[in-house]
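Dear Dr. H.,

I hope your travels went smoothly. While you were away I took the liberty of generating a structure for the chain from your last submission, since the lab meeting agenda had it listed for discussion. I wanted you to have the full record in hand beforehand rather than looking at slides cold. The sequence, exactly as received, is reproduced here:
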Amino acid sequence: MELSWLESLIYGLISGFAEFLPVSSLAHQTIYLKLIGASNHPILRFCAHLGSFGAVLMLLFTLLLRLRREQKIAHMGRNRRRQPDETALMEARLLRMALISMFVVFFGYRLVGQLYQRMWLLAILIGINGIMLYLPPYLPGANKGAVSLSALDGMLIGLSAGAGIVPGISTMGWSISTAKLRGTDKRYATEVALMLTLGSLPAWMLIDVIEAFGAASFSGPIFLYGVTVAAASFLSGYLSIKFMRFLAVKAGYSGFAYYCWGTALFALILYLI
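The corresponding predicted structure, in token form, is as follows:
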């Protein structure tokens, strides 16, 4: 069954908001579509990812411009008027780790793509995601910044971002938890996780486009509803990023562990009935 306009709007809002929370957006899409008896059309999924990508790109645009500017200064050699910001240069190198998550998502989907319709497995993996969110506050912490992160740290964080390919596992959640486990504070871990979505979201969009060409049919409303999904995902994604940055300063993310466990129980009930 295809979604109505209102269902598409709700789908977009759920997708965008969950994309940047330490919960799985794909798990929430799957549960919502199960509840309304609809299928996840690749066009709508593409539009949801497009809206989310637009939101994070807009909020990180100033950072990206600063990183580009400092890289240009570093390449000037003796002609430069000042030394480049070392932190910015390290963050630019860290941003390249987004390529790791891009490749993991694109090639890993071929292995796990068929698992998304297995609600019992989804419930288990959402529960595991909750455990990953629960642990970091109880482990020894540190205060690493971009300059202190090693190549191994960057690689592990980049790989963890690709873990979002597994149904029920959150890209943001595992990126943040891994960054914290490698010694960063929660504020910087959040910014690193957001940067890595610049790799994972385009990979998802490419997957969606490939699947769209293999879809059985297209209809006029699907494109109209796609615009609704993209706009809703952009708005809720923007608010979600703002909310995550607020939590990084004022609170933390361990409370989402209990949310994940509650969602896992709900998904299990859906499977049983």
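Two observations you may find useful: The chain has a mean pLDDT of 83. The radius of gyration is 19 Å.

With kind regards,
E. W.
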